[in-house]
Write a structure and sequence with these properties.
15 helices, six-stranded mixed beta sheet
Amino acid sequence: MSNQKRLAYKAAFKLEVIKFAKEHGNRAAERHFGPPPTEKMIREWRKQEDQLQKLDKTKHTLRGHAAKWPQSEMDMKEWITHHRNMGFSISTKMIIFEAKRIAVEKGIKDFTGSSSWCYRFMRRSGLAMHTKTRIAQKMPQEYESKILSFHNFVIAARNKDDFPMDQIGNMDEVPLTFDVPSNKTVDVKGAKTITVKTSGHEKTHYTAVLSCCANGTKLPPMLIFKRKTFPKDVIPRGIVVHVHEKGWMDENGMKVWIEKVWSKCPGGLLKKPALLVLDQFRAHISESTKNRFKEVKTHLAVIPGGLTSQLQPLDVSINKPFKVFMREEWNKWMAAGNHDLTPTGRMKRPTITQVCEWVKTSWQSVKEEIVVRSFKKCGISNALDGTEDNIIYEDSEERDISD
């Protein structure tokens, strides 16, 4: 038996050979590109030219069965593309259900819509199952005019009071859990069951209140824990802790945040005029909260409903890397072992002190330049002469995280 390695050629190369063979002949193509490819191979490729033209140019072979109902599969692909463009999640069960509906509509009686058909259809159509990367926020109607109106409001406020960059801020609540497991992991190829060990508290939540300024300053995080009494745990310096029976922000929580975080930021004690960007969460814009902001000379720029993914700096570029760092801290804790156990032998959840340390370390790990650029991407701190307008909505999220 020959030990010669079997060669594989991409569609793009085959088409290049075919083009040469058409102009100079198959034997000339063999001499120019090979051998191999041999003259016989080139003859076969020329017979397959139409199929190769339709193929992904990086694909090597024409293996796999041709579609039995090509038009139905084209309709199916259009249906999937349309729904994905709308941001809807598509499962294989949905594909099978819709394919059966199309088959009935077209009078196809021998279509069974099996899972194996679905797999072959996805492979033929260049489709694959992906893990969700983000939950898309539904844009409100006339969102462009609302974004423009928000930008005009911010520009007018800046022109009037000339806020320095360290007096333009953003605050947002980030829901977190004591366990921060990933839904993906490295494992042996072919593993049938993938498990991720936790302490069993991936649904025990608390709230991190993050805030930052347009010059890159990151203000101390405030953590709201779900309890009625203040914890006896040691609280690391640089972290503010608050308690709420549901672990949420409310008007009292806003009072604490204004007093212990916002008023302590640079210029806060002097009550310099400031601009704070907030979403429409009820506790942010209640009358009592507005009055407290007036006392510290803070003007509010309230983001229109449904547009935080476009206009909130923390949502646009900052929260995601923060959560990535939080998962890294949790993974280190899990990998370290030596965890405390309950009387029944179950692993105890991380302590409040540990969680506070994770938040502090993760928040410090977010680079200042990411914060600065996120404000500009939202159109909040850009140069008023318009020279930085090109940064607005710039899609640099992946670069921000990996830098």
